[in-house]
Amino acid sequence: MHHFYLSDTQWEAIRPHLPPDRGRKPRVDDRRVISGIIHVLQSGCRWRDAPPEYGSYTTLYNRYNRWSARGIWQYLFREIVGTLSNERDIAAIDSTHIKAHRSAGGGKGGHVLRRSV
User: Fold this and answer.
1) Does 87 or 77 have the greater pLDDT score?
2) For 44-59, what is the mean pLDDT?
3) At CA 25, angle to CA 22 and CA 28, rounded to 5?
4) In-domain check, residue 71
5) How far apart are CA 50 and CA 12, in angstroms?
6) Alpha-carbon separation of residue 108 from 56, 99, 102, 103, 113 (angstroms)
7) Inter-axis angle of helices 57-70 and 72-84, to 10 degrees?
């Protein structure tokens, strides 16, 4: 199974913009946790189904949720895009995704062909 992990170049672009660690306990490996968050968001899986290589799913969810409430993700995106705007290549960041409910394939009784009016 293929898991997402930030490359050295990607990590060096992100690392200087991370908030300082102000907690009582030191934060777990930021690179691993951010890679896990990106994996969950890209794959569309539940937080609980995140691979154990990224650490505890509660850590992934809590970090994502707390940083969202504090606006840290928006800040990171702005800073990274600002850094990349000096590059010759074009960079695009898109967070659009669609999740369908497991029963979205058909209603009760499965697929039924009906005449349109």
Assistant:
1) 77
2) 94
3) 95
4) yes
5) 24
6) 37, 20, 13, 9, 13
7) 80
Query: Does residue 114 form part of some domain?
Result: no
**Structural domain contains residue 25:** yes
Q: Return d(Cα 73, Cα 76) in angstroms, integer.
A: 5
Contact 54, 39 (CB under 8 A): yes
Encode 82-110: b = buried (16+ Cβ within 10 Å), e = exposed: eeeeeeeeeeeeeeeeeeeeeeeeeeeee
Provide the number of structural domains found in the chain: 1
- DSSP string for 4-18: ----HHHHHHHGGGS
Contacts of 8 (CB under 8 A, 6+ apart): none
Contact 37, 49 (CB under 8 A): no
* Domain, as residue range, for 47: 8-84
By the 8 A CB rule, do 37 and 63 touch?
yes
Digit-coded pLDDT (tens) for 59-82: 999 999 999 999 999 998 888 877
Closest CA to 16 of 85, 114, 82: 82
